[in-house]
Amino acid sequence: MSDKKLKISTNDTLITVNNIVKRFGGLVALNDCNLDIRDKSITGIIGPNGSGKSTLFNVITGHLKPDSGKVYYDGQDITGFESYELFNLGMLRTFQIAHEFSNMTVLENLMVVPENQKGESLLYSLIYRKEIQKEDEEIKHKAFEVLKFLKIDHLKNELAGNLSGGQKKLLELARTMMVDAKIVFLDEVGAGVHKTLLNDIADSIIRLNEEKGYTFCMIEHDFSLISRLCDPIIVLAEGSVLFKGTAAEVKENPKVIESYLGKGVVK
Ligand SMILES: Nc1ncnc2c1ncn2[C@@H]1O[C@H](COP(=O)(O)OP(=O)(O)OP(=O)(O)O)[C@@H](O)[C@H]1O
Ligand SMILES: [Mg+2]
């Protein structure tokens, strides 16, 4: 468990990205990138392929170290923090490619999320069998609640590997609910997902935001989905912010049309 503690919010901004540069050899993936994410917002990130969206998520969530620049989380400098430390501070993410444990059931996939389960230590498990059983029961109860919230409780005993692409994305979302998340980064949660399931995912994001106070930051290519969910929308191009505004402002902006929307990439 990290000893780093999340401070209580003193203002509206939850994440600040300051002058981030990230290079891969000679390629500059993030080029002096600056942006803010408002607490309790559902912030959208769009931009052409290769514009640095996933790299930005990787830098913020501790999966990549930037070459220069700073990231602040609730006023605290978190640059260089490891992803597990950020996880313990309530910062979670899903991956562009879902990361489920395919040979485990949906329920088991959820039950492995909470950290520091006492049952993980052999000595502890021998001495404190009752406590462990109780904790296991609590985690299972929580997992059932999460599955019900997302309306996928009927899938609890299904092997995760057998789920459809969209159901795997919902499972990713479910995993973020097993701990007390404060901000969740979603990397193309809608990609390849059937329309009906996409609506379920969108509804779940709205409910998590409104009922549980989650802040979301989501990368998405489906402009109708992002305009329905997100305010503001940040447009990345060539590793820096091209524009930030509401969906209507983004759609009208000549620079955005030129670099992204006009290219017919957006549905
Ligand atoms: N681990 C890596 N090693 C080398 N180059 C990388 C790595 N990750 C990303 N890149 C490069 O950095 C640039 C930004 O990539 P990134 O994945 O952040 O783009 P993206 O906006 O998420 O694109 P997409 O919409 O296709 O997912 C691309 O040119 C990519 O090829
Ligand atoms: Mg990406």
Describe the model:
The protein is an alpha/beta fold. It folds into two domains: 13-100 and 181-263, Rossmann fold, CATH 3.40.50; 101-162, no CATH class. It has ten helices and ten strands. The protein has helices at residues 53-60, 83-88, 106-111, 122-127, 129-149, 165-176, 195-212, 223-229, 247-252, 254-259, and strands at 13-24, 27-38, 42-46, 68-73, 76-77, 91-94, 183-187, 215-219, 233-237, 240-245. Strands 6-7-8-3-9-10 form a six-stranded mixed sheet, with helices on both faces. It has a four-stranded antiparallel sheet with strand order 2-1-4-5, covered by helices on one side. Helix 6 packs parallel to helix 7 (195-212). The longest helix is centred in the middle third of the chain and has 21 residues, at 129-149. The mean pLDDT is 88. It binds adenosine-5'-triphosphate and magnesium ion. Residues 24, 27, 29, 47, 49-55, 96 line the site of adenosine-5'-triphosphate.
